[in-house]
């Protein structure tokens, strides 16, 4: 491990501090804008010039989670006074809630497909990376290059063959299909990243475990995996972010049962066309799982590679 | 406990010959030290016995069992690695328990606690048991790695320079401790070092390796007093054996090209003149650097000698070793 021995000057510190602040503002403002829009009324959300200070309302969230129908005065009379706070919000717009929206299902689909493909990718990726790192695999370099080459074009370039293939295999609009697809796309990246991490783990640990009476698989499980945890965690975050945010394939290959949230959110229609507060609310909630996942694994990301007890 | 037999073991790594036709028997209950410089094949020999590497040809037997095709776990060996190889995600205690908890041993927890406590006591690491393995000093790591072998009772212990990064005091403590453990338990121990004091004090047998070949195998005294070659002779003895052209003193046998003189083979005060170039006072002994007919000689003299640089000392050999052009012993 090497540290820089020269302390940065005051000027350098200020300069880099300002750069970081500018970068933070540029990246965070759109995020804050989305979150704010979720709490605006539809009128405020499209007001020009844009409204920065507004009266917050949960209308966007109510609209996100419900289907509503326009109601006449008699219908409203008949229905009686609103039972819940969200019904009240709907009534104010002259609508009644007719049922829950599809957002919950779509969100759940995203969770199943995103985390499912990430988990599968980690299992396959770790096994492949371990083999590439430790065993004499014939044509190892060529295979590794081939694996990497699958990532050299944008995945969507093969959308049409994949679409046809999925149709023939009956994978269109299925959870399994999407999990397999995202796993295939992410696998090359994870094999390469994980191989790097596993290469860093000295062989001596496994050798010690072999001598201590463990089989190779047990040594892998008890000694290599815990030390690769950092690498697995950071790779998993990359995979999850891709699978979670993926839009193009989701539009193309899913429409109903397996549709994920990204193609669903922008198409939420309100009374007067696009319901921007509901779209923003959907986007805000959609951010949460990846954020939680990243924060949970933050420790591993920051810790970097373990510095082991092997003398070099 | 068992003896270990290597017969005709050879191993190459690419173009490098690591071991060539090594045969030796490590008798049951013996403490065998392998000596040789870096690259002589010491570590490779251990790895052959442990099963971490497979010989290209030849067989390794532990007891009467041929080890071919057996995994390290099936061979019932314990090994101390030169690089410690402590499991960094575990505490010291968990590191020491690790072999006892293996699916092969499955030791009950009570027995594990007793054993770990005992070994930690011997190695003076009891106070560190709950530290992370990575939070130790080099010497402590090395002791834990020795401990991880000592908690077991294997057919043979393999140790790869286990004392190399300890300070002098601890090293001499552990030398005695290791020797005691081995002597009391009757364990068979195959031990790699390039420290000749370790070899002389602990070994029942010494194997001298040179470029992958076992050049001599015997008791430390045998190798010291009766080396087969210049190479074997220079492995043991402090200061090292002096090698001069054979005709320097006259009386060399046929075929002898070099004469080898250990300090005790040099009589001072008789014979031919040599010049003192330097006097090194080490406390318990004083080393005399002499120049004799243009050749450097290092010998030992009286600790309180009054000799200084430039003085003349007469020397003559007594029962010297003679070596031929290839370095093999002639007489």
Describe this structure in words.
Chain A is 67% helix and 5% strand. Chain A contains 15 helices and four strands. Chain A has helices at residues 10-37, 42-45, 59-65, 73-79, 85-92, 103-134, 140-149, 159-169, 175-200, 203-211, 216-245, 248-253, 261-264, 276-296, 298-303; strands at residues 66-70, 95-100, 269-270, 273-274. In chain A, helix 3 crosses helix 14 and helix 6 packs across helix 11. Chain A is globular, with a radius of gyration of 25 Å. Mean pLDDT of chain A is 87; it is low at 305-312. By secondary structure, chain B is α+β, with helices and mostly antiparallel strands. Chain B has two domains: 4-234, Rossmann fold; 241-323, OB fold (Dihydrolipoamide Acetyltransferase, E2P). Helix content of chain B is 25%, strand content 32%. In chain B, the strands form four sheets. A six-stranded mixed beta sheet of chain B has the order 6-7-8-3-9-10, sandwiched between helices. Chain B has a four-stranded antiparallel beta sheet with strand order 2-1-4-5, with helices on one face. At the A-B interface, helix 10 and helix 11 of A face strand 6 and helix 5 of B.
Throw out a few tags for this protein.
heterodimer, A: 312 residues, mainly alpha, MetI-like fold, two-stranded antiparallel sheet, 15 helices, 4 strands, 67% helix, disordered C terminus, B: 331 residues, alpha+beta, Rossmann fold, OB fold (Dihydrolipoamide Acetyltransferase, E2P), 2 domains, 6-stranded mixed sheet, 4-stranded antiparallel sheet
**What is the end-to-end distance of chain A?**
12 Å
| Total beta-strand segments of chain A | 4
Radius of gyration of chain A: 25 Å
In quaternary terms, these chains amount to: heterodimer
Q: What count of domains describes the coordinates of chain B?
A: 2
Low-confidence stretches of chain B: none
Which geometry of chain A do the CA atoms define?
A: globular
Q: Output the number of helix runs of chain B.
A: 9
In one word, what is the shape of chain B? globular
Name of the level-1 CATH class of the largest domain in chain B: Alpha Beta
Q: Structural class given helices, strands, pairing of chain A?
A: mainly alpha
Order of helices and strands of chain B: EEEHEEHEHHHEHEHEEHHEEEEEEE
Q: Output the CATH class name of the domain at 104-267 in chain A.
A: Mainly Alpha
Main β-sheet, spatial strand arrangement of chain B: 6-7-8-3-9-10
Question: DSSP strand (E) fraction of chain A?
Answer: under 5%
Please identify the structural class of chain B as seen in this structure.
Answer: alpha+beta
How many beta strands in the DSSP annotation of chain B? 17
User: Main β-sheet of chain A: number of strands, strand sense, barrel status?
Assistant: 2 strands, antiparallel
CA-atom Rg of chain B in angstroms: 23 Å
Spatial order of the strands in the main sheet of chain A? 1-2
Q: What is the straight-line distance between the termini of chain B?
A: 39 Å
């Amino acid at each position: 491990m090497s540290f820089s021995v020269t302390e940065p000057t005051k000027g350098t510190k200020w300069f880099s501090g300002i750069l970081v602040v500018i970068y933070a503002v540029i990246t965070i403002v759109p995020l804050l804008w989305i979150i704010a829009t979720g709490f605006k009324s539809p009128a405020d959300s499209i007001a020009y010039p844009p409204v920065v200070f507004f009266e917050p309302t949960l209308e966007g969230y109510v609209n996100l989670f419900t289907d509503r129908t326009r109601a006449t005065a008699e219908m409203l009379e008949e229905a009686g006074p609103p039972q819940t706070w969200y019904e009240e919000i709907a009534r104010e717009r002259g609508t009644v809630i007719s049922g829950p929206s599809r957002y919950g299902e779509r969100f759940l689909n995203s969770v199943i497909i995103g985390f499912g493909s990430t988990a599968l990718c980690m299992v396959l990726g770790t096994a492949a990376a371990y083999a590439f790192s430790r065993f004499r695999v014939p044509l190892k370099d060529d295979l590794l290059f081939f694996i990497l080459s699958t990532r050299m074009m944008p995945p969507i370039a093969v959308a049409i063959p994949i679409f046809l293939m999925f149709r023939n295999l009956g994978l269109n609009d299925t959870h399994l299909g999407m999990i397999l697809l995202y796993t295939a796309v992410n696998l090359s990246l994870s094999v390469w990243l994980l191989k790097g991490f596993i290469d860093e783990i000295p062989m001596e640990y496994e050798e010690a475990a072999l001598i201590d009476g463990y089989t190779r698989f047990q040594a892998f499980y008890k000694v290599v995996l815990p030390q690769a945890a950092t690498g697995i965690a950071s790779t998993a975050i990359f995979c999850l972010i891709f699978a979670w945010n993926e839009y193009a394939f989701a539009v193309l290959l899913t429409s109903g049962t397996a549709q994920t949230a990204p193609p669903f959110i922008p198409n939420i229609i309100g009374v007067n066309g696009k319901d921007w507060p509901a779209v923003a609310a959907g986007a805000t909630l959609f951010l949460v799982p990846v954020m939680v996942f990243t924060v949970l694994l933050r420790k591993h990301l920051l810790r970097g590679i373990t510095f082991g007890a092997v003398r070099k | 406990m068992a003896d270990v037999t290597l017969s005709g073991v050879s191993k190459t790594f690419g173009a490098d010959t690591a071991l060539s036709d090594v045969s030796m028997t490590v008798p049951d209950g013996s403490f065998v030290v392998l000596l040789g410089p870096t690259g002589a094949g010491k570590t490779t020999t251990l790895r052959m016995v442990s099963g971490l590497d497979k010989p290209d040809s030849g067989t390794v037997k532990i007891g009467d069992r041929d080890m071919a095709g057996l995994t390290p776990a099936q061979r019932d060996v314990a090994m101390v690695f030169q690089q410690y190889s402590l499991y960094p995600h575990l505490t010291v205690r968990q590191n020491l328990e690790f072999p006892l908890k293996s699916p092969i041993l499955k030791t009950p927890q009570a027995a594990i606690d007793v054993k770990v406590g005992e070994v930690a006591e011997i190695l003076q690491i009891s106070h560190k048991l709950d530290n992370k393995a990575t939070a130790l000093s080099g010497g402590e790591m090395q002791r834990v790695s020795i401990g991880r072998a000592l908690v077991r009772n294997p057919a043979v212990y393999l140790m790869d320079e286990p004392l190399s990064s300890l300070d002098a005091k601890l090293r001499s403590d552990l030398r005695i401790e290791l020797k005691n453990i081995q002597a009391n338990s009757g364990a068979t121990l195959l031990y790699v070092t390039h420290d000749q004091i370790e070899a002389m004090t602990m070994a029942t047998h010494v194997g001298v390796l040179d470029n992958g070949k076992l050049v001599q195998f015997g008791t430390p005294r045998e190798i010291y007093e009766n080396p087969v070659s210049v190479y074997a002779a220079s492995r043991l003895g402090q200061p090292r054996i002096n090698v001069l052209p054979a005709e320097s003193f006259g009386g060399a046998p046929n075929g002898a090209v070099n004469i080898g003189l250990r300090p005790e083979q040099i009589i001072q005060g008789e014979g031919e003149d040599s010049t003192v170039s330097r006097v090194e006072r080490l406390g318990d002994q004083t080393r005399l650097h002499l120049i004799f007919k243009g050749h450097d000689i290092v010998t030992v003299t009286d600790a309180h000698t009054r000799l200084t640089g430039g003085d003349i000392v007469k020397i003559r050999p007594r029962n010297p070793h003679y070596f031929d052009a290839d370095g093999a012993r002639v007489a």
